[in-house]
């Protein structure tokens, strides 16, 4: 593993789009480029998805002939501890918005074990074991290195199931952890930890709408506040991107970068 001790994290790249439709198309192009580089390098593409509004922002991948679905290996950044077909399930949201409309092999989507929902410790350990199986023997890194992690951001600055002032913000050992007391329902969740998120090759936050403008300004202009989304700082040579619309970017003083592949 390359030492990152002498490489501070790269500054986030903020890309603002006129509207969410342009963002969706550009995000699909970005994902396809990330996919191509990963497949060329190692024959597969590892990606972790969030829930919330994110699954609907992936619609640019549907009917996209450049997507090699059989090479995708999809994990969840976080998941609600509910049955997989429950209305609160991130897997259900991703299935309805994307997987049901594309030819991805179901074995390539790694869900929670629905048999273990009554034991949070066992549930998170089982998901971590899946990651170990899929990553550990291939990477010499201490943590898995995803090709791409796609994140959303809540109005309180949370991302994944990592909430402001929660003890999990300081977790630096486990790959997967559980939450019993989420401030928003449902209370029980599992989540990837910051070390896993920050070891990804590329991380993209997607944020749209004027209700995200104030918190986006805080995260980009005053990251020292320590809000969870501001703690996403990829380990060198990883890179962090923000794909936002003009409404979300309206209050930030942070420099914008034009979109280019």
From TrEMBL:
Listed InterPro entries: 6-phosphogluconolactonase_DevB, 6PGL, Glc/Gal-6P_isomerase, NagB/RpiA_transferase-like
Top-rank EC class of the record's enzyme: hydrolase
SUPFAM superfamilies for this protein: NagB/RpiA/CoA transferase-like
Top-level taxon in the UniProt lineage: Eukaryota
Catalytic activity: 6-phospho-D-glucono-1,5-lactone + H2O = 6-phospho-D-gluconate + H(+)
GO BP of this protein: carbohydrate metabolic process; pentose-phosphate shunt
One Pfam entry name: Glucosamine_iso
Residue ranges crossing the lipid bilayer per the database entry: none
Gene Ontology MF annotations: 6-phosphogluconolactonase activity
Gene3D superfamilies cross-referenced by the UniProt entry: 3.40.50.1360
Keyword Hydrolase: yes
EC numbers for this chain: 3.1.1.31
Record key words, sorted: Hydrolase
Segments forming domain Glucosamine/galactosamine-6-phosphate isomerase: 19-242
Pathway involvement of the protein, from the record: Carbohydrate degradation; pentose phosphate pathway; D-ribulose 5-phosphate from D-glucose 6-phosphate (oxidative stage): step 2/3
Keyword Hydrolase found: yes
Family: Belongs to the glucosamine/galactosamine-6-phosphate isomerase family. 6-phosphogluconolactonase subfamily.
Entry function: Hydrolysis of 6-phosphogluconolactone to 6-phosphogluconate.
Protein name as it appears in the record: 6-phosphogluconolactonase
Record lineage: Eukaryota, Fungi, Dikarya, Basidiomycota, Agaricomycotina
């Amino acid at each position: 593993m390359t030492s990152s001790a002498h490489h501070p994290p790269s500054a986030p790249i903020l890309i603002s789009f006129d509207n969410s439709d342009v963002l969706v198309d550009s995000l699909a192009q970005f994902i396809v480029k990330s996919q191509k580089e990963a497949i060329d390098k190692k024959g597969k593409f590892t990606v972790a998805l969030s829930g919330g509004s994110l699954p609907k922002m992936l619609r640019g991948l549907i009917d996209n002939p450049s997507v090699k679905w059989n090479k995708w290996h999809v994990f969840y950044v976080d998941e609600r501890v509910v049955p997989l077909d429950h209305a609160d399930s991130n897997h259900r949201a991703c299935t309805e918005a994307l997987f049901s409309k594309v030819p991805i092999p179901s074995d390539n989507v790694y869900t929670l074990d629905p048999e273990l929902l009554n034991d949070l410790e066992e549930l998170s350990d089982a998901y971590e074991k899946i990651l170990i199986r899929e990553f550990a023997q291939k990477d010499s890194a201490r943590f898995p290195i995803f090709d791409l992690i796609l994140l959303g951001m809540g109005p309180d600055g949370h991302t994944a199931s990592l909430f402001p002032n929660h003890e999990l913000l300081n977790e630096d050992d486990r790959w997967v952890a559980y939450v019993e007391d989420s401030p928003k329902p449902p209370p029980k969740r599992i989540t990837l930890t910051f070390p896993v998120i920050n070891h990804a090759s590329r991380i993209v936050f997607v944020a749209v709408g004027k209700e995200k403008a104030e918190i986006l300004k805080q995260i980009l202009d005053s990251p020292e506040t320590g809000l969870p989304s501001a703690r996403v700082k990829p380990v060198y040579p990883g890179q962090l991107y923000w794909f936002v619309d003009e409404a979300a970017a309206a209050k930030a003083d942070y420099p914008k970068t034009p979109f280019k592949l």
